[in-house]
Specification:
Layout lengths: L48 E3 L4 E3 L3 E13 L2 E12 L1 H6 L6 E12 L9 E9 L8 H8 L4 E11 L2 E5 L5 E8 L2 E5 L3 E4 L1
Antiparallel strand pairs: 1-2, 3-4, 3-10, 3-11, 4-5, 5-6, 6-7, 7-8, 8-9, 9-10
């Protein structure tokens, strides 16, 4: 049996670079692999866990995680999605044959408004998220652990725009992610993090 040891979930995402999706924001095809819509790929950094106490690397089950978000903005109306994208490491696949690269998706709706507590930002997004089961495809145990209690949530993002590039901030002003703002579509991608199971 797998033991899910999740790094505390940032439902507000995290930082990286994004590009526009081929599908309209807020309309994710259940067969869509969101890694195809963003510049995200595994780099092998989560294949082993480094234990500082004994100065040893261990090959243990885990995944490299990104958060991605894409939002279509029409006036003040916002629709889109946010997802946790996981790249399974070799140890996880070896231990759990059904494990593999996967995504957990929330659809997002809300409004665009003035920035809230971010002097350098151009606008804020006040969003309501709802878990999108048809588009999510992670193992049931992991998915249930991640989603339980977070089937719906509300969040506010502040967005700084520099040319066509965005920096997303949490309400605490910590950087959430980086992406683009072009053609009425705003995106972010997080820096990667490792999850160990």
């Amino acid at each position: 049996m797998l033991r899910w040891t999740l790094i505390p979930m940032l439902l507000v995402g995290c930082a990286g670079g994004g590009e526009d999706s081929d599908a309209p924001a807020g309309n994710v095809d259940p067969d869509t692999d969101l890694t195809d819509n963003f510049n995200v790929e595994e780099d092998g950094s989560c294949e082993t866990f480094y234990d500082e106490e004994d100065d040893t690397e261990y090959a243990i089950p885990g995944a490299q995680r990104f958060w991605v978000g894409e939002f279509a903005i029409n006036g003040t109306e916002v629709t889109g999605y946010e997802a946790e994208v996981l790249f399974a490491n070799d140890s996880w696949v070896a231990e759990e044959p059904d494990a593999g690269d996967c995504q957990i998706v929330w659809t997002m709706t809300g409004t665009k408004g003035d920035p809230a507590g971010c002097g350098s930002c151009e606008y804020s997004l006040t969003l309501h998220a709802e878990f999108d089961a048809p588009t999510s495809n992670c193992l049931a145990a992991l998915q249930n652990d991640t989603v339980t209690g977070n089937e719906e949530f509300d969040v506010v993002y502040n967005v700084d725009v520099n040319g066509s590039e965005t920096t997303y901030y949490m309400e605490s002003n910590e950087v959430l992610g980086h992406g683009t703002d072009e053609g009425g579509v705003s995106t972010y991608v997080s820096e990667s993090a490792c999850m160990w199971f």
